[in-house]
Amino acid sequence: MTAAPLRIEIYSDVVCPWCYVGKRRLERALMEFDGDTRITWRPFQLNPTLPEDGMDRTAYLEAKFGSREAFRRLEEQVLAAGSAEQIPFAFDKIARTPKTFLAHRLIWFAEREGRQDAVVDSLFRGYFEEGADIGGISVLVDLAGRAGLDRESVARMLQSDEGAAEVKAEEATGRTLGIRGVPYFIMNGTSAISGAQPSDRFVEALKQVQSLLAR
Questions:
Q1: Interval 155-196: pLDDT, tens
Q2: Locate the DSBA-like thioredoxin domain: which residues (predicted)?
Q3: How many CA atoms lie within 13 A of 151 on its CB side?
Q4: Would you give the DSSP letter of residue 66?
Q5: In sequence order, what E strands does the chain have?
Q6: CB neighbours of 185 closer than 8 A, spacing ≥ 6?
Q7: Other C-beta atoms within 10 Å of 156: how many?
Q8: Which class for 99: exposed (0-12), middle (13-18), buried (19 or more C-beta within 10 A)?
Q9: Residue 61: phi, psi to the nearest 5?
Q10: For 18-47, how does the pLDDT look when each residue is reduced to its tens digit (9 = 90+)?
């Protein structure tokens, strides 16, 4: 009998730079891991109270960090981590901090279409490397199309309420689990890793879960 894939659920937000770094580090770990895995992305809005059309990036950073300069110190850490993972973060291209609920609905839809990981990657690239406003339907449709989804189907979905209740329920589940920050990785519903840990930490955790499954 073929062993079932090891399940990895990732609570994440597409405006979280450490989530992008964590994705790349997990991908490197999976290249070293001898076993099948199935990844599912779960929603976690870092800024659920933002207006529907988002917020000016400078105003957002000043409200959250006190000033853009204060953010620069954190930005340097992210840029260094991104460089190590070949992520060309381009923070200066980002004009607005978007509300990400629509993006999470797209990610939910993409799971049903078998393109979830590709869509998450497209959203990260669009936002962090191109400065795309991923709070807007037209931008989301374009990024979904790049990831292999049918643009018209995506547009119809986003213009409806499809997936809204499901995304809210998934996010509520994450908060019930005590998740307060992302990225957050849950392996087979038992073992958890918080934060964008080094790839060898992921490899170690994956092997531990695999050994438990083999017992």
A1: 999 999 999 999 999 999 999 999 999 999 999 998 899 999
A2: 8-207
A3: 9
A4: S
A5: 6-12, 37-43, 55-56, 96-97, 184-187, 191-194
A6: 8, 9, 10, 11, 22, 26, 192, 193, 194, 202, 205
A7: 12
A8: buried
A9: -65, -40
A10: 999 999 999 999 999 988 999 999 999 999
Q: Give me 198's structure tokens.
A: 């080094």
Model pLDDT for residues 141-154, shown as the tens digit of each residue: 999 999 999 999 99
Beta pairing, strands 37-43 & 96-97:
unpaired
Domain positions in the chain: 6-213
Q: Shortest CA distance to 178 belongs to which of 164, 192, 167?
A: 192
Find the distance separating the first CA and the last CA of the chain, reported in whole Å.
Answer: 15
Positive or negative torsion for Cα 144, 182, 89, 27: negative
Helix (H, G, I), strand (E, B) or coil at 188: coil
d(CA 12, CA 44): 5
Look up the CATH superfamily of 6-213: Glutaredoxin (3.40.30.10)
- How far CA 157 is from CA of 99, 119, 160, in Å, comes to 17, 15, 5
